[in-house]
Amino acid sequence: MTAKRKVEVFSAGCPVCADAVALVRSLACASCEVDVLDMRDSAVAQRAKALGVRSVPAVAIDGQLASCCAGRGVDEASLRAAGLGQP
To answer: What is the pTM of this model?
Structure first.
């Protein structure tokens, strides 16, 4: 018997997150165990931070943040480059 693939979907409960959950569930196979995790729970938020989640929705598969979800999020350099904090 093959081990299940653990899929974690980090969600804030918004419509965009719901779409991501639906997509993951539609792609999941019998070997996938999909868990939808609420980022409003502090333990979930800590797990997400440990994985490098910087924005939601985000998906981790077998403890690795999916490449589509890595490197996103708010960062000071990008905000300043867009003009934030400048007259």
So the answer is: 0.85
